[in-house]
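Field reference: sequence -> structure
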Amino acid sequence: MSGFALEQIAIPATLDAPDAGPFVEAITVAGAVFADAFGTPDLDFDPAEELPQYQNPFEPRRLFAARIEGIALVLPHQAGEEGKLFGSVTNMELAEQLKKQGIEIDRKKIALAEPIKQLGEYTVGVKVHPEVVANLKVNVTKAE
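Structure field:
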């Protein structure tokens, strides 16, 4: 079977630890990997079919960033007459709100220079990778 190779590869567990993951045995054809999470090779693979591969190694992270940028968080908070919040919006609260939207990210990856203390619209950076940053839209409104 020329062109086929059996090798061990590391599968990323999360975006936070891209180099960590369990080792599985996989069959590779022309550099593409065909195996499931248990290391069972896909023997029905037809090498004549076009292989789906990312041309750019940052592409999965960019897709994750695009998913974050598609979200606009609306956070109702108690505020005074001049729009000053009673309390503040922190990166921890933003991480909890993202988790409710189905996106788990460490609060330390949310680049909030200081807590938000005024009503209004904000753009907050979320570090998906050292070279990929997503812009999260946050709208802090007055709770009724």
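Note: The two ends are 69 Å apart (CA to CA).
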